[in-house]
């Protein structure tokens, strides 16, 4: 059965799932909703996501929502089936450390990153004025997190040593914020910069962003 992913490929949270699918070599079909407005339809909420959000993944008759939960499901079911890429190690201690970094991402990294993303992408798209104070505070918060990452990445290629699901979770929205004039936050920290460059040179990640660009070009209404 072909996996069906509901979502827009330019969405950072949808990109998490797309990258995970590509890294694990899982065949899938992308099924973008008609519009953001359509997510609020009662049928969508009843049959896809009760909170009117994306992504949603269908694996046959099985449905699961929320990007982090979807990726964990994909790893649990498909890791090792199509290729030898390991995103969560079988070793219980190593797996626990991946979860630790995922928790760091969710608790400390994502909150300031999301504030910057909202100001740089959402506010601008709505033709509203950005809030300089929110941007300033978010940059300061994210800088503190990246200072910690700079130490944690010492002598390592990826957050957990080897590439893992934790790196994927950090990836898409970071790219958008980096590209929106905040690259110095990553580039001014040598270990973070090396990790960043290594991450975005992975084939699955490059292909995911290339497909996102292609979607934008072919669907200007979004």
- Name the shape in a single word: globular
The main sheet orders its strands as 2-1-3-4
The termini sit apart by 29 Å
What percentage of amino acids are in beta strands? 5-15%
By CATH, the architecture of the largest domain is named: Up-down Bundle
Q: Structural class from helices and strands?
A: alpha+beta
> For this structure, what is the CATH class of the largest domain?
Mainly Alpha
Number of helices: 9
Write the layout of secondary structure elements.
Layout: E1 3-6, H1 12-24, E2 28-31, H2 42-47, E3 56-59, E4 62-65, H3 67-78, H4 92-125, H5 132-152, H6 165-182, H7 184-187, H8 190-200, H9 203-218
Parallel strand pairs: 1-2
Antiparallel strand pairs: 1-3, 3-4
Question: How does this model look, in words?
Answer:
It catalyses: RX + glutathione = an S-substituted glutathione + a halide anion + H(+). One of its GO terms (molecular function) is glutathione binding. Residues 1-82 form the GST N-terminal domain. Its EC number is 2.5.1.18. It holds the Pfam family GST_N_3. The chain is α+β, with helices and mostly antiparallel strands and 222 residues long. The protein folds into two domains: 3-85, Glutaredoxin; 92-204, Glutathione S-transferase Yfyf (Class Pi), Chain A, domain 2 (Up-down Bundle), CATH 1.20.1050.10. It is built from nine helices and four strands. It has a four-stranded mixed β-sheet with strand order 2-1-3-4, covered by helices on one side. Strand 3 and strand 4 form a beta hairpin. The longest helix has 34 residues, at 92-125. It is globular and about 45 Å long. The mean pLDDT is 94.
């Amino acid at each position: 059965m072909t996996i069906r992913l509901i979502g827009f490929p330019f969405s950072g949270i949808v990109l998490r799932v797309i990258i995970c699918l590509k890294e694990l070599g899982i065949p899938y079909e992308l099924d973008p909703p008609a519009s953001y407005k359509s997510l609020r339809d009662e049928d969508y909420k009843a049959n896809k996501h009760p909170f009117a959000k994306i992504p949603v993944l269908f694996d046959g008759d099985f449905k699961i929502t929320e990007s982090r939960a979807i990726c964990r499901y994909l790893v649990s079911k498909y890791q090792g089936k199509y290729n030898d890429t390991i995103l969560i190690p079988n070793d219980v201690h190593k797996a626990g450390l991946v979860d630790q970094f995922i928790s760091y991402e969710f608790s400390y990294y994502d909150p300031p990153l999301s504030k910057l993303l909202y100001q740089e992408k959402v506010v601008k798209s709505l033709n509203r004025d950005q809030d300089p104070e929110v941007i300033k505070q978010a940059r300061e918060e994210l800088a503190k997190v990246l200072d910690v990452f700079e130490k944690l990445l010492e002598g390592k290629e990826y957050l957990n040593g080897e590439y893992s699901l934790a790196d994927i979770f950090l990836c898409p929205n970071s790219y958008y914020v980096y590209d929106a004039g905040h690259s110095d936050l990553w580039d001014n920290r040598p270990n973070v910069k090396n990790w960043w460059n290594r991450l975005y040179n992975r084939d699955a990640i490059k292909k995911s962003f290339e497909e996102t660009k292609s979607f934008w070009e072919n669907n200007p209404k979004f």
